[in-house]
Design a protein that fits this description.
With 218 residues, the protein is mostly helical. The chain has helices spanning 2-5, 17-24, 28-40, 59-78, 85-98, 107-121, 128-152, 158-171, 175-200; strands spanning 44-47, 51-54, 202-203, 206-207. It is built from nine helices and four strands, in the order αααββααααααββ.
Length: 218
């Protein structure tokens, strides 16, 4: 799964079951069961009589996933205990780490820090079923994030600005405002990723060649 999320396996790539079975030292039966689970999660697709392929990055799917994740995280904030100083401090510390100069860390590390930030954001929610749904949706969303930052070379500052507003809302004891902001945050991400995929992004599994520029981060 890590290879799928990080974009090591490109969209449209056929998955070689024999090679995977040999690499992981398992038989084909448990491997196929695992592949069908990944297919159910939308990360790969099963094509009759042709095998498994890495799912394409689709703008409509991206929009739906980002909007769904925003709604789920907002709901988790609504159901969270009041934030404490430790949680807010942790959010700010993660963003300080992510705000290092781009050359000091690779884009994938910035995405990993973004995942940690959002997990910390909803850590006060006691609804385990809701958190499980968030993580399932998050896995699919961040497949797009890894591809996006790899395509642009680095992440921008817009997401950090939005994070700071959410942290400040929590610090003021206003989870309703934080929930509104997290919805807007993922809506912004949806618009920028759809624009990327629709006009200048990954087409048939390949990135278009263009001058490197700063991305619009979530």
């Amino acid at each position: 799964m890590d290879r799928l999320l990080a974009g090591v396996l490109r969209p449209g790539t056929r998955i070689n079951e024999t090679d995977l079975a040999e690499e992981f030292g398992v038989s084909r039966t448990p491997l196929r069961e695992a592949l069908f689970l990944l297919a159910a999660e939308g990360l790969i697709e099963s094509r009759p009589r042709r095998g498994f392929y890495v799912s394409e990055l689709d703008p409509d799917t991206a929009r739906d996933l980002y909007m769904t994740l925003g709604g789920l995280e907002a709901l988790a904030l609504d159901e969270s205990r009041p934030p404490d100083e430790e949680q807010v401090a942790a959010l700010r510390a993660i963003d300080q780490e992510r705000a290092r100069r781009p050359e000091d860390h690779d884009p994938a590390e910035a995405v990993d820090l973004d995942i940690e930030w959002h997990q910390t954001l909803v850590s006060g929610c006691s609804n385990m079923e809701l958190l499980a749904l968030i993580e399932q949706c998050r896995q699919r969303v961040y497949r797009y994030e890894y591809a996006y930052v790899a395509d642009f070379g680095r992440m921008g500052s817009k997401g950090l600005e939005q994070h700071a507003l959410m942290a400040s809302a929590l610090e003021r004891g206003d989870p309703a405002e934080a929930a509104r902001l997290v919805r807007a945050h993922w809506e912004y991400g949806a618009r920028s990723r759809v624009r990327w995929l629709s006009s200048e992004g990954i087409i048939e599994g390949e990135s278009r060649e263009r001058p490197q520029r700063q991305g619009e981060a979530t």
